[in-house]
Amino acid sequence: MAATQSSSWSDLQPELLGLVLQRLPSLADRVRLHAVCRTWQYNARLQPLPPPLPWLSLLDGTFLSFPSGEIHRMPVPDEACCHGSIDNWLFLMNNDGWCSLMNPFSKAMLQLPKLPTIGHKMDNPCPLFYKLVVSSFLDLSPESLVAVLIMDDGFDSTLCICQPPISTDAISRLSGDKIYDVVFFSGKLYALTPVKLFLLEIADNHKCEPKISSIKCIIDSVDYPSMIDRLTPNSYLYARWNYLVESGGRLLLVARRVGVLLPLPEHNVLQHARTLYFEVFEADLTTDSCCRWRRVSSLAGQALFVGTCSKSLPAAECGLPQEDCIYFTCDYARARPAPDPLRDSGVFNMRNGTIAPLLPETRVVRRVGERCPTWFFPSEVM
């Protein structure tokens, strides 16, 4: 006698459900799968999954899923303003200057200290840029260590070391230079100035009161000869933005070249800028050689997402169509963000030097607020 075939979706075998989930890199699709029934929700949580693809946060509670561009909304509290993100946490600040991190899925909160204000312009007294980095996966434990880079529109900067909810140490310059980016790599904190890389040692007893115990310059120059050769210097006015990214056990410097076509427009020069090229360098930190930057042509199977929140993800595991690609947003026009938050965002292919649109179809998204969009990396379905 033939076996009776089940007609219930809840009877789908867990191993088959796992195969379906492996083909759903989008968090939105995973959320929908969880919502089918309680059995699927339970079995789905038992499956080992690659990280979902990031969302693009517009900092007003609106998120764009990647790469579909589907819109999701998870409003922030009324009394708070979102100034950025770190992993799957949003960085919030209230009117009194007190800061916190909020997971928009679980609504969990992590209190941060009141950070210094470094803006100098009378019509814009608040900093325009915050970047948060953590030494390990951020949770609600009292051992979480957070570094916060604060920068205003004049690129004056302050780096704060926090043991939430306490801020215990801060520096403004390194050897007289402004700090452009920071990252934790192999448990150590690194900071980048326009041309130098510094190692900031944190005292061993940081669990009680973290302090920067020493500062050492380990790489004192960066050379960009190949990037200059690829461009036509008489056609553009150039600027460069650098990002530090930990990627597959490597510390990378991602150099982004932005240009404005000459002759320059009379107003809002950066609104006419566009990204022309990227170069990637790996920090050679071996003890038996002179530390230096070494140019690389491959990301070793990783995809880089750079901006005010930068991260590396395994391209194939996440379902991305190509390796050796850099996904970027427009994070440099901080004082006057463009009406279109997707302006000058895209995908740079390191293999052929081409740039493709970030989303496959043109989507007009109205900007709400005055902050640049940031990458948001949901780690799990809540």
From TrEMBL:
Boundaries of every KIB1-4 beta-propeller domain copy: 63-349
Pfam families: Beta-prop_KIB1-4
Classification via PANTHER family: F-BOX/KELCH-REPEAT PROTEIN-RELATED, OS06G0148600 PROTEIN
Protein name: KIB1-4 beta-propeller domain-containing protein
Protein species of origin: Urochloa decumbens
